[in-house]
Each structure stands twice: as C-alpha cells, then as structure tokens.
Amino acid sequence: MAEQRMMKQGPDNKKIYGVYIKSMLNTKVVLNMNEVGKNVKQNLERMISKQIEGKCVTEGFIRPGSTRVISYSAGVVNNGIVEFQVIMESMVCNPVEGMLIECVVKTITKAGVHAEVVDSDSGVVPIVAFLARDHNYSDKQFALVKENSKITVRVIGCRFELFDKNIWVIGKLVEPDKLNIKQNEGKNKKPLHIGGDDSDDE
Fold this sequence. Notes:
Organism: viral metagenome
Radius of gyration: 23 Å
Protein name: S1 motif domain-containing protein
Number of strands: 13
Order of helices and strands: EEEHEEEEEEEEEEH
Number of domains: 2
Shape: elongated
Structural class: mainly beta
CATH superfamily of the largest domain: Nucleic acid-binding proteins
C-alpha cells in the first residue's frame, strides 16, 4: 500500500515530486523478554529504527525517523526471545524510470557528473546519481553544470542491495527550458465546453 509522493515547489515554479513515498510494510521484529511490557510498541519502533532506517530494504531506502508501528501480532516466545510480526508505516525512497529528482552536483569528471539527493531534515543521502557524458553528449546545458549547483535529473535506471546506505541512479540532465515547456503545455490549451448555452457563438 502506498500514497502519492510528496510534492515540493522548486525554483521557477517547477513542480518536482519528492523522492519519498509513504508506504505500509510488514516485517518480523525480535525483542528480549525484558523488553516486552507496557512499552512494547516503543521498543518495536526503536528496534525497527535501528535495523532498517537509513538503509535499503527490499522496498527501497527507509527515511530516518519516519517509521511508525501501526499494529503487531501476539508475541511468539522462542528460546528466551519474543518474535512479532509488525505492520509499520515508513517513508520509502525507490525512484522509478522517468521520475524527476532534484540533485546537488558534487563532482564533475571526464566521465560525467556525480550528484546527490540530500535529505534536508536528517542530512542523509538516499540517492547518489551519475550522469554520464555519453547520455548527454548533445545537451549544451550539460557543459554549463557547476559543482554545488542544483540540477533536475530524469531517472534512467537505479540499483541497490539490502542494507546499502544509498540508492545508485543513472540519470539524464533535464534542461530547465524543456521542463517549463512541458508544464505549460496544458495551460495554453483553450477549454473545451460541452453542452450548456450556445449564446456565446452567436
């Protein structure tokens, strides 16, 4: 289960969706016997935070501080520990092909541009992006990119493994002019009226 990605307003009124999406996840959590009591929910959240936040799981990168336990099963005792099946809500980052992300350029080499998506709240870097010169050879804007500048990147592909601290993205630079043109295409179209009074046509 997932909800729509958070959207933020970028420079020049560019609408770029955030990299996190609110998701419902299911996982197994193990607690010691002395951690089971009135504060069991808090202990489950603490353990989940320690195990997966700031890392990649099967669903993607889990944002630090975003996990909230929704419900949990009755505990099963096994050799002095208690196992719970937990349903939790987390903010998950898992970029898909074609998605637009806002990155900060870190380094520029002959091979291409290395950029990052930085979480302003936690300081973590959920996405590390690489823009190869081969994918942008015909883009004049690519040559104007500077270190520490903000750029908009279109995701071509991504990869990550369990417990990685970043998702690696291969992307292509999106020129600001092209981005604005696409967003304004619908604004210039005349509205279509269906039915109603035809007196305006007289």
